[in-house]
């Protein structure tokens, strides 16, 4: 890899790791490559790994531990990994609840599909996070379907409360 390409890759790696650090989300080399914020080139996983190993610039900007990366100016990787572990466990609990509910959603003939979105789709929720869903419905049935899906949760007091 020539010098100009390496500099572009370094900048892309820093942008990518910075994005995930906003959410206290440490990443692996594979994560960096998969989500690489690069405007100019497509880089291979081997290029990303090599750059992470040899770049002095990246060594001064990033912290690394056991194959995980984050910005050096952020909290420690150990703290972020512990937080990530706790968030994954919380997301697993939420997915367990969601699986039970989705079975009931499937009984409504206007529901085409249901998907978890936002932090739940990343397995990165907090105990205070709600379960955000994307629900595709038959054309022309949006409002009646929404009403029929929301009423049981409202009656059980399971809807998010306003502050």
Describe this structure in words.
It contains 6 helices and 4 strands. The strands form 2 sheets. The chain has a two-stranded antiparallel ribbon with strand order 1-2. The mean pLDDT is 90. It is mainly α. Helix 1 crosses helix 3 (45-54).
Give the N-to-C terminal Cα separation: 54 Å
Please bin the fraction of helical residues.
40-55%
Instruction: Summarize the main sheet.
Output: 2 strands, antiparallel
Mean pLDDT: 90
The DSSP helix count reads 6
Question: Any descriptors?
Answer:
4 strands, two-stranded antiparallel sheet
Task: Provide the fold topology.
Blueprint: H1 3-21, H2 29-34, H3 45-54, H4 56-61, E1 62-65, E2 68-71, H5 77-105, E3 111-116, E4 133-137, H6 142-155
Antiparallel strand pairs: 1-2, 3-4
Quick summary:
By secondary structure, the protein is mainly alpha-helical. It has helices spanning 3-21, 29-34, 45-54, 56-61, 77-105, 142-155; strands spanning 62-65, 68-71, 111-116, 133-137. Strands 1-2 form a two-stranded antiparallel sheet.
């Amino acid at each position: 890899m020539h010098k100009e390409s390496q500099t572009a890759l370094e900048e892309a790696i820093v942008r990518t790791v910075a994005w995930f650090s906003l959410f206290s989300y440490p990443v692996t080399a594979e994560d960096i490559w998969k989500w690489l914020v690069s405007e100019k080139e497509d880089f291979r996983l081997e290029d990303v790994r090599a750059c992470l190993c040899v770049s002095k610039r990246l060594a001064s900007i990033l912290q690394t531990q056991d194959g995980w990366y984050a910005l050096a100016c952020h909290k420690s990787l150990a703290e972020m990994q512990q937080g990530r572990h706790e968030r994954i466990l919380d997301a697993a609990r939420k997915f367990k609840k969601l699986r039970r509910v989705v079975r009931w959603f499937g009984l409504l003939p206007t529901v085409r599909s249901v998907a978890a979105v936002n932090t739940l789709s990343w397995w990165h929720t907090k105990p205070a996070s709600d379960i955000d869903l994307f629900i595709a419905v038959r054309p022309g049935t949006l409002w009646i379907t929404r009403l029929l899906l929301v009423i049981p949760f409202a009656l059980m007091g399971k809807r998010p409360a306003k502050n």
